Amino acid sequence: MASRFARVTVSVATTVGICLGYNSLMKIDLQSNEYHFPLRSPWDYNWDRRSVESSVKPMRSNSLREKERYERDVMEYQPRAVRNIFLVRHGSYLQNTTKLLDSNGVAQAELAGKHLSSLNLPINSIVWSTKPRAIQTGQIISKYFKNVSTRGCMLLEEGHPETPPEPKTEEEWEPSPSSRFIDGARLEAAFRKYFHRAEPSQTEDSWDILCCHGNIIRYFVLRSLQLPIDAHLNIEAYNAGITWIKIHHNGIVTLESFGDTGFLPYHLITLYGRHCEGHQL
User: Fold this and answer.
1) Of 191 and 60, which is predicted with more confidence?
2) How far apart (Å, rounded) are the C-alpha atoms in residues 226 and 204?
3) CA torsion sign, 45 to 46 to 52 to 57?
4) DSSP structural state of residue 93
5) What is the reported pTM?
6) Which of 115, 135, 222, 231 has its CA at a distance of 20 to 30 angstroms from the CA of residue 31?
7) How far from 258 is each of 46, 48, 71, 240, 255, CA to CA, in Å?
8) C-alpha 250: how far from its chain's center?
């Protein structure tokens, strides 16, 4: 089996790649003009501790009766459905004590709701962070869905991962180690609550919407793809952008899209409330 730090050679002349979180491990061979990236570890199929093998009582003997029992349990516990999660970042908001959506933020949330509704998917639930800007965004989106369960969740409030970013941030305000320690536990608790494969009793694919914050969304994406968390600031999350994560029945997770803003007109594409001048559509 390949070592975690085994090298893959990629020709610079033919391939352009992005290596999240591996900046310190990447090596450049100046003579051959090639990049060498470390391979990732093998995929952990039991990342949510719900794999069939970990959920079924192991065989106690090699008897035919025990083998039949084990195979029956495996078939019974085998998940069949796919869980789809839409992560929507809140809209642009006022930089005052209220932290409510500004006029652009309201328009962004309205268009996000219309876009999600136009997909004609059987949305099961809409959950939002209990911060005002996320509550507003979630409530506006929920107007476009009838008879869908809605609720707030404090676990989805904004926060920072326990792992500091790499490369280091140049922001004036940097969360303290104790703040990261507390927030990091909450972010992980939120991930474990909302990200897992379908239960065996679920027979149809499901679709849920989480309205939350940029740092939370970045954490969820990297965590679900089993990528280094310290790369979270290498990813930009636009206001009202829609991220789609698919959790397959066998434990594979795919990122179908990240921060999609294709439903927004150019003047409403904002980052931290500011219009993205020079943004290439």
Assistant:
1) 191
2) 26
3) positive
4) B
5) 0.83
6) 231
7) 24, 22, 39, 11, 7
8) 18
